[in-house]
Write a structure and sequence with these properties.
Blueprint: E1 2-7, H1 12-17, E2 24-35, E3 41-56, E4 63-77, H2 80-89, E5 94-97, H3 104-115, H4 141-158, H5 160-185
Parallel strand pairs: 4-5
Antiparallel strand pairs: 1-2, 2-3, 3-4
């Protein structure tokens, strides 16, 4: 069994998302082989991670402590295609390709990043409330479309070349969507 602590300064991708001072991540890695029914051996390992990563809340941008307590079961196979097919079959463990130059540091960083929330938020985030502006016009949904149409017309009169380019872009986008739909239905040939 191998174990230790890593600083986020040693894990550059983690260091990019962590706030403040370097974060310490505790880890342990142990491997063993298991006998298969056909008599061959299968390499397995366990990776455990623990620590706290200070990140920014995606709502209020204030610091937030994200607890890390992960345990991963790993199985090693000989080829990438074997790893892809066996990983899809069983989600109780991750399947990795065995190699003589196994990157344990890279694996630890990958697993830490996968364990963190993609959009961390406080459970009771207190966003600052914008002050009410009594001079701001009240816009009702029915009137919003009229305001948008008036703004678009005004923009066309001020910058007709930009409006023409915008119309061309919309036409191109519609043509691309139609071609994609034909391709999906099997009507277009490359």
């Amino acid at each position: 069994m191998l174990s230790g602590e890593l600083s986020s300064a040693q894990l550059p991708r983690l260091d990019d998302v962590a706030l403040g001072d370097p974060t310490l991540i505790g880890w342990s890695f142990s491997g063993h082989s298991q006998l298969r029914a056909d008599g061959s051996r299968e390499a397995r390992a366990e990776l455990s991670l623990s620590g706290q990563v200070r990140m920014a809340c995606t709502r209020c941008l204030q610091p937030l402590q994200c607890r890390l307590d992960e345990h991963r079961e790993l199985r090693f196979v000989g080829t990438e295609s074997q790893a892809e097919s066996e990983d899809a079959d069983d989600e109780s463990f991750d399947v990795l390709v065995a190699s003589r130059s196994f990157d344990l540091l890279g694996l630890i960083e990958d697993e830490v990043l996968l364990a963190l929330p993609p959009a961390p938020r406080h459970t009771d985030c207190n966003l600052p409330v914008a002050p009410e502006n009594p001079t701001a016009p009240e816009i009702h949904p029915a009137g919003a479309q009229d305001l948008l149409a008036k703004a678009t017309d005004a923009a066309r009169h001020k910058r007709p070349e930009a409006a023409q380019q915008s119309d061309q872009n919309r036409g191109l986008a519609a043509a691309m969507r139609a071609a994609q739909e034909r391709r999906e239905k099997g009507g277009a040939k490359d």
